[in-house]
Amino acid sequence: MSEKGIEVQGDKQMTSGVVRTIAILETLSQHQHINLENLAKKTKLPKATLLRFLSTLVNLGYVYRDPNDLYSLTLKLFALGSHGLEHVDFISLANPVAQKLCNELGETVHMGVLEDKSAVYVLKKESSFTIRMYSRVGKTIPLYCTAIGKVLLSDMSERELQHYLGRVTLKPFTPNTVKDEQALRSELEKIRNQGWASDDEEHEMGTLCIGAPIRDYTGKVIAAMSVSWPLFRFDPEDKKRIVASILTECDNLSKLLGWE
Q: What are the structural domain ranges in the chain?
């Protein structure tokens, strides 16, 4: 066999080893503990092969084998991931995603995060149209009547939501602004079910926004991204495609942060 052939075969063997290791770790992450036989069934690996990989992972400190021969993950992987998160620049990750949405839909894109009882814009990609949205990075917006804000509210626990509602007045910005707590709660439940939120002239007349959540590796919503239209430029017949695009890009960003 040629040297080139040996290299290719070696690469394939190395790749196979990585794939098997990840399969073992992912399966272990789904169980508090599991024996060799069941782990072999779930990973579809021969017991002898599996035992060899497990022995290495145990020696490296990523897997624990108890006296009853049950296997489980240690906290070493969690610690490793936590250290990695310290080096993730969230805005840098979000920039190309927001720009892609802006290019695809042609309208202004914002990303906002929770700040006390409001949301604050931390990223903006400007529409190329002459008539644009008046906004800026650092601007605060209410939660209860904006797409970004409602996405953030929809992820709150009941205790967090009660605390928020106890500190705000549902001030009407337009005739479409939500007027009471029960109506807001119904809207938040709808957002949880469909996975996205809209602001249909609720904060500003003549403006419509659609937003979706951005999640971290735990599944918690840490930000929301929205696209805004002057109402005269929004085509309701294109809404399904628009929502799908926003959801796809926000999911892609969430996956970069470790969410699946």
A: 3-84, 88-256
Neighbouring residues of 70: CB distance < 8 A, sequence distance ≥ 6: 33, 34, 35
What is the CATH architecture of 3-84?
Answer: Orthogonal Bundle (1.10)
Who's near 181: CB < 8 A, 6+ residues apart? 165, 170
Using a 10 angstrom Cβ sphere, with 0-12 exposed, 13-18 middle and 19 or more buried, the burial of residue 51 is: middle
* pLDDT tens for each residue of 124-163: 888 776 555 666 777 889 999 999 999 999 999 999 999 9
pLDDT at 40 over 70: yes
Residues 64, 75: contact at Cβ < 8 Å? no
pTM of the full predicted structure?
A: 0.68
Question: How deeply is 22 buried, as exposed, middle or buried, from its count of CB atoms within 10 A (0-12, 13-18, 19+)?
Answer: exposed
Cα–Cα distance, 101 to 108 (Å, whole number): 9
- Output the six-digit token pair for 63: 């897997």
Look up the CATH architecture of domain 88-256.
Answer: 2-Layer Sandwich (3.30)
